[in-house]
Amino acid sequence: MPYQEYAVRVISRQVEILTRESVRAVCRSGIEPLHQIRVASLRLYNLFWIFRDVFSPPEVKAWKKELAVLRKTGGKARDLDTQISYLKKQRRKIRGGHDRAFLSGYLAHLKERRRRMEPALRRAVAGFVRRKTTAKIQKRLERGGGCPRQCSRRKLARVARKKIKKRLKRLLELKHLARDP
Question: Model-level pTM?
């Protein structure tokens, strides 16, 4: 499969997921569609980086700007949801007293922050849907990529290796923070 076709296929899959989850998030409440939007937008952002030579830089820049809003608001919400979930588990382990009361108060504070964040997150998703960003990306994908340079599987593998090495290096820097089971 040619490089450009592969890029279009992989990006199309993430665009479809992002479109589906965006509609779900606008139509109903719940945090799961919002988290799926965040994941899909992160993947799409990374795919635009990997396949940056398939599309014109102005197109990719505009798409990344649109995705950045979703990533930023979704990331903050996800962080709070993770903290709330973790603290709930910790609260169950505590049998009573001052620590449990303090944890309950802090949990209430985090839940309130998350509740206040919800409208901004939903507005970001609604704006993304209203601007038809995924439709624009999909329309461009249907036309096919216009690769300005020579593209090959070798190029794709080199870019993927570079990205993996960079992430691995970051993970190894954090190794001292992990506990052995």
Answer: 0.66
Q: What is the 3-state secondary structure (H, E, C) of the chain?
A: CCHHHHHHHHHHHHHHHHHHHHHHHHHCCCCHHHHHHHHHHHHHHHHHHHCCCCCCHHHHHHHHHHHHHHHHHHHHHHHHHHHHHHHHHHHHHCCCCHHHHHHHHHHHHHHHHHHHHHHHHHHHHHHHHHCCHHHHHHHHHHHCCCCCCCCCHHHHHHHHHHHHHHHHHHHHHCHHHCCCC
Measuring CA to CA, which residue among 27, 22, 7 is closest to residue 127?
Answer: 22
- Tokens matching residue 63: 């798409």
**Cα→Cα distances 164→72, 156, 170, Å:** 23, 12, 10
The tokens describing 128, both together, are 């993304």
88-146 pLDDT tens trace: 888 888 777 777 788 888 899 998 998 888 888 878 887 877 888 778 888 887 776 55
Mean of pLDDT values over 2-19 = 82
CB 74 within 8 A of CB 38: yes
Count of beta carbons in the 10 Å neighbourhood of residue 140 = 18
